[in-house]
Amino acid sequence: MPKRSIIYIFCALLFVSFSLFGGVKKNSVQATSDGSYITISWEIDDISGIQAFKVLRSLSPMSGYELVETVFPENNKLSYSFRDDQPFMKATTLYFYRIETISTTGSQSYEPSLDANGVAVDHTTSGVRRTWGSIKAMFR
Question: Whole-model pTM?
Answer without folding.
Answer: 0.73
